[in-house]
Amino acid sequence: MQFADKYGPWAIIAGSAEGLGEAWSIGLAQKGINLIMVDHQENKLQLLSQSLRNDYNIETIPLLIDLSDLESAVKIMKESMKVNSRLLVYNAAYSLIKPFISITSEELRHFTEINTHTQLQLVHAFSRQLVEKDQGGGIILMSSLAGLIGMQLVAPYAATKAFTWNLAEAISHELKPHKIDVMACIAGATSTPAYIKTKPIYGTIKPLVMKSEDVVAAALKKLGKKTLFIPGFNNRFNYWILTKLLPRKMSSRLANNTIKKMYAHSTD
Fold first, then answer.
1. Into how many domains does the chain fold?
2. What pLDDT is stored for residue 204 in this prediction?
3. In this predicted structure, what is the pLDDT of residue 234?
4. pLDDT score for 214
5. What range defines the domain where residue 44 resides?
């Protein structure tokens, strides 16, 4: 079965205009999927939306929505009900590299609102829509290797990415009988504007930074085959070392020493 037949004709991408979101938009457009594109960056959203219509002859619905809005899932689902959406990609994430005690209350709210609340509400509503229509489909949630271990300087981000991973794994069992494929794409370091902006300083241990389009291409091939998928051989190898070979205490010390060296300048 062709990808568009199984998961089309429409997909929702939450966080669609930049970095991995742009890669998801292009990757799905290349497969002939029409897109409901959700983002808070108006200029980038409109430009990419128009470009995809011209380049791939698809339809797009650009939605200018801030996913920290507690009603954003309701707004997205109103548009989803107007078309036959059968695939959801939740790519949006709020991220800071900052000591935990330096994070403001407003920043903490963004972590919970964008990374957990809206994601949970949207996945719930979208799942119910597919089940009620007796349709199969797919749900892809972007997670991160940062969620493997409690990591200093990114504590709320790491915690919410662990949430995403566990959410995907849990609901995959419930939704499989309804022919809904669920996958957490657990990415490592990826060359996005957000990652580059953090200005990581590498020491002896340097992660292999993947291209956004490579992450997306690999994930799309595994949808329906893997529930928890780590793109990139090096990332899968590091995962094996940290979770299978080394004791948890040693893995935690290694990971936390690495990130401390990478972002020592962020604590100055």
1. 1
2. 65
3. 93
4. 97
5. 3-267
